[in-house]
Amino acid sequence: MSIRRYWPAGLAAVALAALPFAVRAQAGASAAPQAAASGVAGWGEFAESLRTLPDRMLAKLPVSMRSDPQVQQEIARLALEALTTSTIEAIGGDGDAPVFLPSIGQVINVGQPNADTIYRTATITPGASYRLRGRRGSLRLAVVAQVVPQGSAGAGSRAHLHLSDLKTDAEGRYDVLLSATRPAGYTGDWWELNPNATRLMLRMVSADWGKEAEPTFAIERTDKPAGRPRAAAATLEQRLRALPRAIDFIGLMFVDHVEELKTQGFVNKLKVFDVPFGALAGQFYYEGVYDLKDDEALIIESPVPAKCDYRSLILTNEIYETTDWINNHASLNDTQAKPDSDGKLRIVVSAKDPGIANWMDTSGYPIGMIQGRWTGCDSQPIPEVRKVKVKDVPGLLPKDTPRVSAEQRQTIIRERRRALMERPYW
């Protein structure tokens, strides 16, 4: 059965961050091509698969995109991103000596990472026990999820641990044990660990960049002595041989998602994205393609839920990389985008700045995707979308809709860049 059936393309960030390396290796779209012999077992197959990957990615796109030199080079970049996230895990993932490693984000921009979220993953050994310690911080959402491979018991329902639910000491530190059964006599925080889990996935979501305190994480295996012996040649070879399929899975799975939505007719309009498996508990998604000329804009309008833990809107390009939100005004969350006085949330998407505070910059991509999130909200409205001329935008919004000048916008962008760069991405 196709892995894609379990991991819908629309929730790429979850699929990439959550699917274990070994499972991705088994779920690759094609076997590694035959390659010339190498003095290092497995290296030739790895190199040959990587050589052909960009062309195989391009083959999933329409001719107009395949023949565009700009798209060709962006596909090469996406292939490098797929390579990077897989090799980081192949090098550093170790269930006996675990560490939370970067998975996707602003540089490893594969699979549409959320602008407000730092994603990290730690490889764990099935059936082992662990201790998680650190400072809780003040993020409204800092969540660890257990990842169980498809086909294993418990794979259909992912357990989530919210740091806000843990006890802390006077210094704001938490300490929680993770194991299949609670240790006899233990009264501290404990989280039942599925014995089939192969990975812990961490999301750190900040909506007020620079003002919220980031959590810290230290993880250790507790059911065996500390230490890390030299890795056996067979283990290293196994990881190397798994890389081609793992990279293929990531590089090929989502590259045509925007094109698929276009063919379904969701252009300049939004649809529910129903995620059957792998999403953050309580999170609801909507998405659609935007297609705009330089003088055109979309006005996205929605009521705002009375109760909502978090909301955001992001953009992607045509091959599903999240638009650069650090150097551009290309994402908005509930701290940054306020409703108008009538209670409606209105956000403008365009290439040119209309001078409206709630603006998202397409950043040189005339076609891409809009994706929204409602998290922990008491309703999940699908926004209405209107395509208008950029010059007409101010007159189509309430008179008290906040405006910004070009100088103010530059100040805002520089400040958001500073705040984001101070977050612990690496």
Can you describe what's shown?
- The protein is an alpha+beta fold.
- The protein folds into three domains: 1-88 and 230-254, no CATH class; 95-227, Jelly Rolls; 258-421, Jelly Rolls (Sandwich), CATH 2.60.120.1600.
- Helices cover 26% and strands 24% of the residues.
- The chain has ten helices and 18 strands.
- The chain has helices spanning 3-6, 12-18, 21-26, 43-58, 63-66, 69-92, 233-253, 257-263, 393-396, 406-421; strands spanning 101-102, 117-123, 130-135, 141-147, 160-162, 173-179, 189-192, 199-205, 218-221, 271-273, 283-291, 296-303, 310-316, 331-333, 344-350, 359-361, 367-375, 384-389.
- Strands 1-2-8-4-5 form a five-stranded antiparallel beta sheet, covered by helices on one side.
- Helix 4 (43-58) packs parallel to helix 7.
- The longest helix is centred in the N-terminal third of the chain and has 24 residues, at 69-92.
- It starts with a helix and ends in a 5-residue tail after the last helix.
- The model is unreliable at 1-13 (pLDDT under 50).
Unreliable stretches: 1-13
Number of domains: 3
Structural class: alpha+beta
What's the Cα radius of gyration? 22 Å
- Determine the N-to-C terminus distance: 35 Å
Q: State the CATH class of the largest domain.
A: Mainly Beta
Helical content band: 25-40%
CATH topology of the largest domain: Jelly Rolls
